[in-house]
Write a structure and sequence with these properties.
single chain, 268 residues, alpha/beta, 5-stranded mixed sheet, 4-stranded mixed sheet, 6 helices, binds zinc ion
Amino acid sequence: MEIFGSIIGVAVFAAIIALIIYFLRKTGRPSHRATRRGKRIIRIGEPHSAEQAGEQGERTVRWYIGDTVEGRQYVLNDYIVAKGQFSSQIDHIVINPRGVFVIETKNYTGYVFGSDAQKQWTHVTNYGKEKVPFYSPVKQNETHVKKIRQIAGNVPVRSLVVFVQNNTENIRSSCVIPLYDLHNALNTGDDVLSADKMREIYDKLVRARSDLTDEEHTLRVLRNNESIRNGICPACGGRLVQRHGKYGDFYGCSNYPKCKFKRNIDNK
Ligand SMILES: [Zn+2]
């Protein structure tokens, strides 16, 4: 009787354990599947993954460009310039005998449509299902070139926008190149800078470089954009008003001409 009782006891215990394991696995499986599905969605549109793609693209271009070789080429990666509350980040600057190259890297997959004249470009992903407008990287890099000209002085500065995935077939622009053309773009043309001049420009750029970290720069951009969304001038705290200009609508500061802040409305 006693043995029989303990056999039942063991059997019941084993059955309970089996049930617990069964339910744990059953509840465990769908949630695991859900996170995997979630990740797949994140890979398409989440800023986090776009950021990772950006970093990967920059690493690739950095590898293509190579390092500074005294007297032959000078390289600055992840170059930040700051003025007041504003800062901009330039992916790469190359100074070689052919000139100063200001390089913006894009690591989009899928199709990209745009031209020099358009402010808004289109990124088509997910087999044509998603069309995402974005600010022209040519215009974006023009701003960077302007900043470098201010620092470097009267020297030849060229803008290059490199598409790491080589998907430039739908882009009409003289400064957009696929990655496989980068070496050519940096090495064709006449020599216009002497070794001394290259070194001089490099030293100027190094002196003007901001000591802001990537994170501090990103924080500033986010803070300024937030301020603009709230109709507040990020430069002086004044009110922003919509104005019509020669090149389209823009937000200007109500404290103009004392404050000269302005931002294109379709500039993200
Ligand atoms: Zn202002």
